[in-house]
Amino acid sequence: MSVPSTRLPTAGRAEMMRAVKRLVLDDKAAFTGVVVLYVAAAGASAALPVMLGEVIDGIGTGWTASRVDLICGIIAGCVLAQLLLMRTGRRLGYRLGERAAARLRESFIDRVLRLPLGTVERAGTGDLATRTSGDVGAVAELLRKTGPEVAVALIEVTVITVAAFVVSPLLGLLFLIGSPALVIAGRRYVRLASPVFLKERAAMSEIAETLTASAAGAQTVAAYRMQDERRGAGYGRAAVHMKRLKGIVRLQTWFFPATDLAFLTPAVVVTIVGGIWYMNGWVSVGEVVAVAMLTLRLDGPVFRSMMALSEFQMGGAAMARVEGVHLMPDEERGAASDGAEVRLDDVTFGYGDGPDVLHGLSLRPRRGERLVVVGPSGAGKSTIARLIAGIDRPRTGRVTLGGAPVADIPLEELRRKVILVTQEHYIFTATLRDNLNLAAPEADDEALFAALATVDARWAVDLPDGLDTMLGEEHHELNLAEAQQLALARVILADPDVVILDEATAGIDPGSAGNVEASLAAALHGRTVIAIAHQLQAAETADRVAVVREGRIAESGTHDELLAAEGIYAGLWWAWKGVAV
Hints:
The protein is 64% helix and 10% strand. The protein has 20 helices and 10 strands. Residues 1-5 have low confidence and may be disordered.
């Protein structure tokens, strides 16, 4: 089964700005405090050259030594105040950014978990994975580091500019001579860089998608000798990404030199022209010194803010992708089920714009029945499981649970009644107890061990710390069979009305798979169990067997009835047993 890939959307500038504003204003008091500290620190910094200019002019006009000493002491106090205010502001700003980043992560994960599973699958694991890790991380870095640094730089530039005009309006005009070049260069860079950085992030997603698909399908790649094809796909994606990176470098080769020239020009102009004006008596030497020093002090904040434009572009591109997930419309799921009876009536279904996979299929498992669905590969067995689990919607016909369309039942209610267990199981980096309690938070240790025993998970008894053993990477890693047993134990603990097992015991060795299935059947007695099976040992003990062929129910009955009919099922059974008919 394949699901067409449809990338998740990206947000526009307006949505991004609203998102950033929301993150900041959620902590308004702290934000205001940080701004006040930064303004005070910038004021203390700008006061240094202003007062130094006053001292120079004061000495020329006959200031006493004590007055000079007093002003110099105030200058020293301003230096200390600037250090303390800036340090405190940076610490509080970093904390503000960390809290905003935490809220961003929480809202993003919450939205991802509410996305329809079909949407996630069509988007591709690489796209969602890069948004969840790389993009969220880039935005978090923007919020806790780059954003505050640029805020500090802009405040410093503003305060220094105001101070220059306070010292001398005439020299203040020269102070601004480099501003047009900075504005033009910055606007052009932002305009050109924004699409380039978005394409670079998208290229990263394509690389991740290719690598993930190759790793997940490693056995298939090896079986069909597709190593060269997958390697070529990986190199192709990497080449595209390299092209995007070169585009970024080309932009920066003209932008950074232009920035250097723009903020050094005012210092030269103020010094030369200011000197001429001093000779003509239009300004004092102290004013020229003060404004020239203020111009030089622009070096740090202007350079930091211009350098940060690249990181802002990266963070902005990442924010567009993160916020794009929030643009996905919520599914309208307001139906209420009355009971847990499952019915598929005249269902037609196909993936995306592809051909129909199911053709007018009808299937009505009885309440409490153990129904095994068998058939050749590609017949539509897993598609039936996805429809009953509410992952996909039929093109025509109805798939209902308790009389309500399954795909319209709220997910929280649906997951309490229907659980789908496949061959793919996720083990969280947490204790065995925590992994099990996901299904039943209130279950005690006795219930957890009982569930593990039911699925023949003997390995759990031998763990070094029992239920407190950490699982996952860099801890105790479970093999495929153990992970499947853990997933089945979760089913026991969740105690749903309907259980769908899509090859759920495929990774367990055949010698014990039968025991696990028998134990599951006993534990789930009275509940509807629909098992999708390739290994037909599960069909022998089922209440009923449904044979799917070319998207239709070809046969239905007990194991013995279908063998006696000598139809499709009988052929599959004897072929599986290795008996020539």
